[in-house]
């Protein structure tokens, strides 16, 4: 089957390998520097080598955004570039008559999406897809998009509206540290890898001013709570409470200096994301007061102690597995922090309840093997953490979500991972998250 790519026929019958090599050499050895090609549709011929050479040349020239038709390709610079994301630059792209003629930037995609909402007589929801492999910069990209809309979509005409817009902007930005502390972790490829999917909905009124927001999450990597790969870490929040708690809080949460936890690998590593105070301050701004925070951190500490509960094989299968000697203290501590009776916690971990019969239901209690006890312990921890995460999302939404009658359209930001590739961004009209195939 023949296809036309930039005026060249390509296909098994249209172009021989020798001819393709000649085109490659001509393109790569041309007079025009590759870093000047700001759109990959200008690459001719379109091959994996020419596309990668073009991206490499732009990367070496500190040009990290490249158009690919209606899609934007973003490369992680792996260094701070504050001048690339200033409020002044956001306003320049917002005020430009044709922002697509400016240098490729994430703000171009954001502005085009915003104008799509404004230009339509009947508001049609817009969605931006942010996809890429771990470490490509999806979290940073979504954060920049929210900052962009917080600047350009909050232009109120009265002082009262300005205060509302300012509060929404601050709470949207404050939700990031909380979501990242509880949903991100250090992996082999990324120190701040999102271990959950999220769809961020920015709600606009008829004047295209931001009146609220909402966050939908899915596919939380609950397994990480109880099982971490070699050289990786658990969720950031566990390290934050262990490193940032005061002496008084350490006593309350039973986290003494130098304590060892099975579910807290590589605690000696210090990351930028280990800042406990940033998370606590963000939670306060979202309406989670100090007593509620204290209860949350008690639950987290209880899960850490739960991971130190280990069982020994029972000599009699009819009897529950016995605790290892050094696990007895962990059971009492975990039960106290989770506000559970010790006997109930042990029964949950060691005894399986089986119900049989429809009419006359019978209940059987079967002691679990050591492997089953370990599995039940891990499942309990994952369930508690998932419920806590969902509760945090509901608190965030109650803090930033507008009244359904006050907004008419939204701009969504869908963040999802890929196996390989740089970050790609694109926008479309939809009433639900838009996913590229």
Automatic annotation (TrEMBL):
<protein>
    <submittedName>
        <fullName>Unconventional myosin-XIX isoform X7</fullName>
    </submittedName>
</protein>
